[in-house]
Write a structure and sequence with these properties.
Elements lengths: L1 H48 L7 H4 L20 H4 L35 H15 L6 H9 L1 H10 L1 H12 L6 H8 L27 H4 L1 H7 L1 H11 L6 H13 L4 H18 L4 H15 L17 E6 L6 H14 L4 E6 L4 H14 L2 E4 L6 H14 L4 E6 L7 H14 L7 E7 L4 H13 L4 E5 L9 H9 L3 E5 L7 E3 L2 H9 L4
Parallel strand pairs: 1-4, 1-5, 2-3, 2-4, 5-6, 6-7
Antiparallel strand pairs: 7-8
Helix pairs in contact: 4-5, 6-7, 10-21, 11-12, 12-13, 13-14, 14-21, 15-16, 17-18, 19-20
The structure holds guanosine-5'-triphosphate.
């Protein structure tokens, strides 16, 4: 009996042992078969990681976040390890979406590829830790990391969700190279194309204006053509064999028609009659010679027609004034050429701020001979422009500053006062050496009325008689001088750039009577 009990006990132990072994085996088998079940849980978590906002997934693909050393897969769609270390080849410089950050975490600021960003591994690690928390279950860090590094899971996610794949790709684009050298290799900005050195503009060829010496003589034919009626009328009268009383009267009429003026015409005829009688001149050639001498005398052969063009203590200042359209600006331009041709340095001041084109016109004239123009904005105070021009001329050691002024009607007292102001303001810099009144020869006696008003306001030192080439009334020169008591210093005999000549009475008369031909 005792033996039987012992045998049963042994049998029981054996049975229990066998059962235990089987159970244990079964558990092991179960554990083995249960392991894949973990994956769905982790997959689920991975899915959550790529939640609708698309964040998290990209971070998970980063091999840099590996904690267990599990081999990353190299399936398509996953980023090769080299990319996480910032290797340049697949970096997409355009894709720096902050969507690669997890909700609640600070979005990675979008930065240009060259801007260093925080190390990816740190960010990824913290993301992994966050996941462990977000999961809501107690997941040890290793499991969390496993989830992170489970290439299969990630691959499934990225394959299933193209957007997530993009996110993965995008995430890699914000990764920075390990070294500055890497940066340079990858995203060095394209070499800026060196701009071709601009060809230096060729120096404009400057004109060399011809000397003014004998210029009027060279232009005598043009003067003769214009005044041919005047000249022919005079010659026709004096070509008679013997001058009668009527002939002397006809001669006086011819002078009056040429705008010589009554007093001057009467004086000229009286002088001529007397001299021809005294000298016994009878032939037309003799009378013609006497007439030429008389006209030259009337033109004031002794007048000082020189222009002050430089001074020791600063630039000579020449102001150009007159009514609208007489040719002031043109005269300034031509005069600049004359002065340059005579060896002076010149600066022009565009004080005609009323007519915008005047300054441009002046600049064009200046460019041809290398003369600068000081100008102000349209409508600027002409006095201040004139002041600035003279100041600049002084600073630059210029010989002559030419100041063009706006045309103004002599009847407008406000405008005439303005002219007085311009002169006074210039005088704060130094004296105005010359005030040239520009008169249009074709306006005849009306020009004299204008001239009188101008001389009252500004001290006119000389007259420029323009458009003499288009006038049959060359006698105006005599009238102007007699009326104003100031000499005609220059005459305009055409629109050409060098058609301004210093006035020389002998040559004027020569052109008129064709005595030299
Ligand atoms: N035929 C001829 N035309 C001239 C002469 N001088 C000037 N002109 C012309 O006269 C016109 C007026 O000349 P501008 O110099 O513009 O006259 P301006 O006095 O400055 O004019 P405003 O500024 O409006 O007062 C232009 O067409 C010139 O070419 C000249 O001696 N002969």
């Amino acid at each position: 009996m005792e033996w039987l009990i012992i045998s049963l006990a042994i049998l029981l132990v054996l049975i229990l042992g066998g059962v235990g072994y089987v159970i244990d085996k079964g558990r092991k088998v179960k554990r083995l078969t249960d392991k894949p079940e973990v994956a769905p849980r982790l997959d689920k978590k991975s899915d959550r990681g790529s939640t609708p906002d698309g964040t998290g997934t990209a971070t998970k693909t980063r091999p840099g976040t590996k904690a267990t050393g599990t081999k990353p897969t190299s399936k398509p769609g996953t980023k090769p390890a080299t990319k996480t270390t910032g290797k340049p080849t697949s970096t997409k410089p355009t894709s720096t979406k902050p969507s690669t950050t997890k909700p609640g975490t600070k979005p990675t600021p979008t930065k240009p590829p060259t801007t260093p960003t925080p190390p990816v591994t740190d960010s990824a690690a913290s993301t992994t830790a966050d996941e462990a928390t977000v999961d809501g279950t107690t997941v040890d860090e290793t499991t969390a990391n496993e989830a992170t590094v489970d290439g299969t899971t990630v691959d499934e996610t990225t394959t299933a969700d193209p957007a997530a794949t993009n996110a993965v790709d995008d995430s890699s684009t914000i990764e920075v190279p390990d070294s500055p050298a890497g940066i340079n290799d990858t995203i060095a900005p394209p070499e800026p194309e060196l701009e071709a050195e601009p060809e230096p503009e060729p120096e404009p060829e400057l004109d060399t204006p011809p000397s003014t010496v004998g210029r009027m003589g060279r232009l005598r034919d043009r003067l003769a053509r214009s005044n041919s009626a005047f000249g022919r009328g005079l010659l026709a009268v004096i070509s008679k064999d013997e001058m009668t009383e009527d002939d002397w009267e006809d001669l006086e009429d011819s002078l009056l028609q040429a705008d010589v003026g009554v007093a001057a015409a009467t004086h000229i005829v009286e002088q001529l009659r007397t001299k021809s009688m005294v000298e016994g001149a009878r032939s037309s050639e003799q009378i013609k010679a006497l007439l030429a001498a008389e006209l030259t005398e009337a033109l004031g052969a002794d007048w000082d027609r020189s222009l002050t063009t430089n001074r020791d203590d600063g630039p000579a200042v020449v102001m150009v004034v007159g009514v609208n359209g007489t040719g002031k600006t043109t005269t300034c331009g031509k005069l600049a050429r004359v002065l340059v041709g005579d060896g002076n340095t010149v600066l022009m001041g565009a004080a005609d701020t009323f007519r915008a084109a005047a300054a441009d016109q002046l600049a064009t004239w200046g460019e041809r001979v290398g003369v600068d123009v000081v100008r102000g904005p349209e409508g600027a105070d002409p006095a201040s422009v004139a002041f600035d021009a003279v100041k600049a001329g002084k600073a630059q050691g210029i010989d002559t500053v030419l100041v063009d002024t706006a045309g103004r009607l002599h009847t407008k007292s406000g405008l005439m006062d303005e002219l007085g102001k311009v002169k006074r303001v210039i005088e704060k810099q130094g004296p105005v050496d010359e005030t040239l009144l520009v008169l249009d020869a074709t306006t005849g006696q009306n020009g004299l009325v204008q001239a009188r008003v101008f001389t009252d306001v500004v001290d006119v030192t000389g007259v420029v008689l323009t458009k003499l080439d288009g006038s049959a009334k060359g006698g105006i020169v005599i009238a102007v001088q007699n009326e104003l008591g100031v000499p005609v210093k220059y005459v305009g005999i055409g629109e050409g750039k060098d058609d301004l000549a210093p006035f020389v009475p002998e040559e004027f008369v020569d052109g008129l009577l064709q005595t030299g031909s």
